[in-house]
Structure formats: structure tokens, C-alpha cells
Amino acid sequence: MNTLKIPENHSGVSKTLRLPEDIVDDVQNLANLKNLSFNKTIITLIEFSLQNLDEQDKIKLKNLRK
Q1: Beta carbons within 8 Å of 5's beta carbon, 6+ residues apart
Q2: DSSP letter (8 states) at residue 5
Q3: Is 62:51 a contact under the CB 8 Å cutoff?
Q4: Burial of 44 per CB tally in 10 Å (0-12, 13-18, 19+)
């Protein structure tokens, strides 16, 4: 017999953002093209942006984490 397993919550934090409508439309269209959720697409775009910061900004950000 199959059993129901409820997955554990991920360690996400809920934030509210106000985004320009054209950006929301572009992100939603990209998500649709890639068959991803809007949220996953936003996370991927933000991760990419953080990984590709200017070197001075990377250093400043790293120092703030300490």
C-alpha cells in the first residue's frame, strides 16, 4: 500500500517585493518558457546576480556576513 509522506519545509524566508510590471511579465514569461515556477526563476536570477557582482561589491558583501 502507498503511504503519504509530507516533505519537510525548506528554510525559506517570506519577503514581499514591489516589482515593475514589465519585469514581472518578463520573469513570468521566462518561467513559462523553462517550465519553472515564478519563485524558482526569481531565485535563480538573484543567485546568478550575486555570483557575478563586481569584485569590490563581493568583498563588501563578504565582510558584512562576518
Answers
A1: none
A2: -
A3: no
A4: middle
List all residues 6 or more positions away from 31 whose beta carbon is below 8 Å from its beta carbon.
37, 38, 40, 41
What is the three-state SS of 7-61?
CCCCCCCCCCCCCCHHHHHHHHHHHHHHCCCHHHHHHHHHHHHHHCCCHHHHHHH
**Which residues, 6 or more positions from 19, have their beta carbon under 8 angstroms from its beta carbon?**
27
Tens digit of each residue's pLDDT (9 = 90 or more) over 16-28: 999 999 999 999 9
Q: Would you kindly state where each structural domain of the chain is located, as residue ranges?
A: 21-65
pLDDT tens digit sequence for 44-65: 999 999 999 999 999 999 999 8
Predicted TM-score (pTM) of this structure: 0.76
